[in-house]
Amino acid sequence: MSSTDSNAHAHTAVELNYNFISIEGNQLYTLAHNFTAHGHPLLIQSATLNKTAVVLNKTGQFIEYSNHANLQSCIGNILHCKAGFTFTFELKFLQAPAVTSKAYILSSSGALHPGIEMYYFNHTFYLSIMTNKLWVLEFPYGFSVEIWHTYKIVWNEVNGLILHIDGMNIFSKIPSENVSVSLQPLSLFIGSSHNHQSNNRPNIMISGMTEIVYITGKRLTLVNCKISF
Predict the structure, then answer these.
(1) Phi, psi of 31 (to 5 degrees)
(2) 3-class DSSP state for residue 78?
């Protein structure tokens, strides 16, 4: 067991499987939680990954993960996240992102809103998590983002924020500052920020989403998930 995971493995691990099953109307069905699909995105079978993937390649398309009171999820509500989480997904850009605008991958935080944010801008990945503190990573990439890569975000308050790309530990950082948080987390948007969803064109494909949440205490509410100790 690595030192990075030592704090997380002292707790109960709950795995939430978000592998995509189908899109019906504006509902994107997964085993653990149903997402809202905005802008009629496509669900395809990726020959490269041998699994389903959502295509977000038109203006106004994004996926929304609404906070679910009965689901122990950190990406759905970072305030539920007392002992940390791991979030893994495969991502491919359909074309090289513009260097002059942010290409959003994940967004649930904002002014006074705790949450997670990940975007690509000017050849650099930016990742942040905000609770009552702020963790920020910046990674200038040296690889093609137009092929599939596996991204894994690992966070807990003891070990900080770590980003893995294709199994490689990219970066980690202790919190940079205390922040003022007075509002509830926003819904998690995949493929858009909260400010520009109507005119945003993500040009990404995403697949294989899995979240592992580390939980303290005895009382758990579980929905289509696997537990390990």
Answers:
(1) -65, -35
(2) helix
Place of tokens 């038109």: 58
For 19-37, the DSSP string reads -EEEEETTEEEESS-PEEE
CA dist 85 and 168 (Å) reads 18
Which structure tokens are listed for 143? Answer: 């690889």
Q: What whole-number distance in Å separates Cα of residue 161 and Cα of residue 181? A: 19
In angstroms, the CA 164 to CA 153 distance is 6
Residue 44: strand pairing partners: 53
The pLDDT tens digits of the residues spanning 55-111 come to 999 999 999 998 665 578 899 888 878 899 999 999 999 988 877 788 999 998 877
Contacts of 192 (CB under 8 A, 6+ apart): 38, 62, 104, 107, 200, 202
3-state SS class at 80: helix
Q: Which amino acid is at 157?
A: E
Q: Tell me how crowded residue 69 is: count the other CB atoms within 10 A of its CB.
A: 8
Write down the pTM of the prediction: 0.86
CB atoms within 10 A of CB 178: 10
Catalogue all structural domains in the chain, each as residue range(s) with its CATH number.
Answer: 3-228 (2.60.120.200)
DSSP helix/strand/coil, 143: coil
Collapsed DSSP state (helix, strand, coil) of residue 59:
coil
Other residues' Cβ atoms within 10 Å of the Cβ of residue 186: 18
> Which tokens sit at 145?
């983002």
